[in-house]
Amino acid sequence: MIRVFLVRRAAGLIGAAGLLALSGCLDVPHPFRDPGRLGRSLAANAPPARLAVPTPPAALLGDAAAREWSHDVAAALLDQSVPAMAQPIRAGDWWLRLGAVTRGGQVIPTYSVMTPSGAVRSTDEGAGVSAAAWAAGDPATLRLAARQAAPGIAASLTGIQADQMDHDPRSLKHRAARIWFAGVRGAPGDGDVALARAFAAALRDASDAVQNTSHDADFTVSCVVTVSDGPAGTTGHPQQHLQLVWRVVDSAGKEAGAATQLHDIDAHTLDGHWGDVAVAAAQEAAGGVRQVVSRYSGRDNVPLPPPGGAPVVANSQR
């Protein structure tokens, strides 16, 4: 799984006390990972939870080197959170067709994403490789070619998923995400109530709808607040560490991401009313949660146009 760590800062959350940092730990979606019931509902023809990488029959390599290259490509794609498997094609598989052509005295590796019906959905080319090293099946050369190509292939897969979502009226590209907010616990003073009210108000927009039940929710959000003793402080006043963790899970209960807010405060300053602090913290958290939902669902990803503008049926049988 690919993890993207974001750090955002907003002033004025604790008055003159300083800054409250929000860091979001976000899951970047890939269409060949099994995303559970939610993900399978995002596109009418979502790809299955694997990408087959068969041994190429015509890649200007010997049999052993061709097998090694397919394993190298599968391993490099796993590093990009694409569950690729170096195996023969099975019914219903999306798969990656490996190949190679000579151009300008070099070998150019090629990578075509294929639908189960055998149609080319996208094609990427790798960097030029020494023809002699390629023909010799040099292991380092094959591994390097696979590592260099993997990010582009993963990006193509994400674009394919986005195109499918774009054509599916049920996907989150065409409706607001249904979010059940399970509340806040652990905050001192009136923080549980104040944060919950402020967050529910801050999250509602055209992209996200907060509902009062978990039934049919796309995502569930909850927040846990912890307060622990800190250092004495530069002026001799006792300090406390304040941490707010806003956790987002999908409809299958899988972790979609989390946004964590951290701050050192004068001890017990939030033991009573949170007031504007709750509003500012909730607005910041809503932005982080919105990014988690967008990244995990892929609703903001740019669709990859079908080759030649022709529609592609994702899961048709060969």
Question: Layout of helices and strands, plus pairs?
Answer:
Elements: E1 3-11, E2 19-27, H1 36-42, E3 51-52, H2 63-78, E4 84-85, E5 94-103, E6 106-114, E7 120-125, E8 129-130, H3 131-135, H4 139-166, E9 177-185, H5 191-203, E10 208-211, E11 219-229, E12 239-250, E13 255-266, H6 276-297
3D structure, described in words:
Residues 297-318 are annotated as: Disordered. It comes from Gluconacetobacter diazotrophicus (Acetobacter diazotrophicus). This is Lipoprotein. With 318 residues, this protein is α/β, with parallel strands linked by helices. It has 2 domains: 3-40 and 171-297, Double Stranded RNA Binding Domain (2-Layer Sandwich); 51-166, 3-Layer(aba) Sandwich (Rossmann fold). It contains 6 helices and 13 strands. It has helices at residues 36-42, 63-78, 131-135, 139-166, 191-203, 276-297, and strands at residues 3-11, 19-27, 51-52, 84-85, 94-103, 106-114, 120-125, 129-130, 177-185, 208-211, 219-229, 239-250, 255-266. It has a 7-stranded mixed sheet with strand order 1-2-13-12-11-9-10. Helix 2 (63-78) crosses helix 4 (139-166) and helix 5 crosses helix 6 (276-297). The longest helix has 28 residues, at 139-166. The chain starts with a strand and ends in a 21-residue tail after the last helix. The relative contact order is 0.18. Residues 1-48 and 310-318 have low confidence and may be disordered.
